[in-house]
Amino acid sequence: MPDRFDFFVKELLVKILMVYPSYPETFWSFTHALKFISKKAAFPPLGLLTVASMLPEEWEKKVIDMNVTPLTDKDILWADYVFISAMVVQKASVKDVITRCRTLNRKTVCGGPLFTTGYDEFEGMGVDHFVLGEAESTLQPFLDDLARGEAKHIYETGDRPGIENTPVPMWSLINLKHYSSLSIQYSRGCPFDCEFCDIVILNGHIPRTKGHEQMIAELDAVLKAGWKGGVFIVDDNFIGNKKKLKAETLPTIVKWSKEHKYPFSYFTEVSINLADDEDLMQMMADANFDRVFIGIETPNEESLKECNKIPNKGKDLTSAVKTLQNHGFEVQGGFIVGFDSDPATIFKNQITFIQNSGIVTAMVGLLNAPKGTKLYHRMLKENRLLDDMSGDNTDFSMNFIPKMNKEALVKGYHTIVNTI
Fold first, then answer.
1. Nearest 5°: CA angle at 25, between 36 and 385?
2. Coil, helix or strand at residue 58
3. At 265, which helix (H) or strand (E)?
4. Neighbours of 97 (CB within 10 A)
5. Distances from the Cα of 82 to the Cαs of 146, 238, 314, in angstroms?
6. CA distance 63 to 33
7. Please, which residues have CB within 8 angstroms of residue 346's CB and are 6 or more apart in sequence?
8. pLDDT < 70 regions, the chain
9. How far apart are alpha carbons 212 and 218 in whole angstroms?
């Protein structure tokens, strides 16, 4: 006798609950700051909302963002399948959700960055299906097999699919008023190869982009949903394909924004070499970009060489930040301590750099080695690897043995955090 889930799939009566697990109180969760603007979360679960648009139209869909709304047993029991997507920092909440679904006899489908790089950690928890990698490649094969009652346990591929036809997220599934910003994805992938970064593991080196017509559709959808305010372009490196950005994408955004009386301000993640391109800075300013996040990492040149931070090496980083600020961008920065090449003075040097550069939002973390990265494999080879990383940039943890004395490293890190 077929189980109730296979019956519902074949009859196209499936109820899908999409769950975005909760974040701990990290730097970027802005848990306390959000209260001042009466918001519950910084950004919506863009990946799940995009996947929702890829599912059969006939299926019933519901999204629970646990950073906004508690997940109840009633929610779980409503569903035939529970889709879970998460990042490493959400791991504890993920395990709780999986356990609850298992207890309530509801099947789970897990995907997203956490599972793509480390699904094996959850193999003993009773997850029914892992749909790994990018949904454009692995979701449809899963859905096809599901419709036949032959769904496999794991779906994965090394493909880097084009995102030209990725559908517009299903914004109707969430209440926009709970978020401080909305999100749009323009590209995936980064041309650089930093030793500690897992972006290229997840999305590759070659930036894949959406066309200008699709970007217009994305902007129209956000505006139609009733949003006005900040829009985060959630790319790995927004300027990864400068040629297309300058020839097509930014002129499209500038024209659209002008026609709609500039309803959005934009912010995104870029590499520091944006400061070398006067035309690109001006075009981004014309499009109403007012903030950029940059992985500055460290003012120590030897540490930049160690981690292969190509765009930062040999550059006057303070001057580059000032150039961006002079073009109207608030520069937010990511910083790291714990490189093998860090001198004892690195903590004072980091503080001095942050203060002198005028970066008002500085995320400083201890170096960790994400699974699959070159740093991870180097630490493994050198017998320095410890547990998996937590993903929490405020818990003072490292998942490898540093060259600097760990006690001195943590003490110095405390000094930076308490000073800035």
1. 150
2. coil
3. strand 264-270
4. 23
5. 14, 32, 49
6. 24
7. 298, 300, 303, 337, 412
8. 1-12, 27-28, 393
9. 10
Q: What region, left, alpha or beta, does residue 281 occupy, with left being phi > 0 and alpha being psi -120 to 50 degrees?
A: alpha
Cα gap 214→206, rounded to integer Å: 20
Are 48 and 63 contacting, i.e. CB atoms less than 8 angstroms apart? Answer: yes
Helix axes 346-357, 317-326, angle to 10 degrees: 20
Beta carbons of 123 and 96 less than 8 angstroms apart: no
pTM over 0.90: yes
What would the two tokens of residue 417 be?
């955090």
Distance, in Å, from the CA atom of 185 to the CA atom of 49, rounded to the nearest integer, reads 12
Q: Note the pLDDT tens digit of each residue in 2-36.
A: 444 444 444 557 999 999 999 988 766 777 788 88
How distant, in Å, are the alpha carbons of 90, 272, 341, 372, 380 from that of 169? Answer: 22, 30, 43, 29, 39
Instruction: Specify the residue for token string 């937010």.
Output: 332
Tokens of 91: 């791991």
Strands 187-188 and 264-270: unpaired
Question: Residue 113: what residue type?
Answer: P
Percent of the chain whose predicted confidence (pLDDT) is above 70: 96
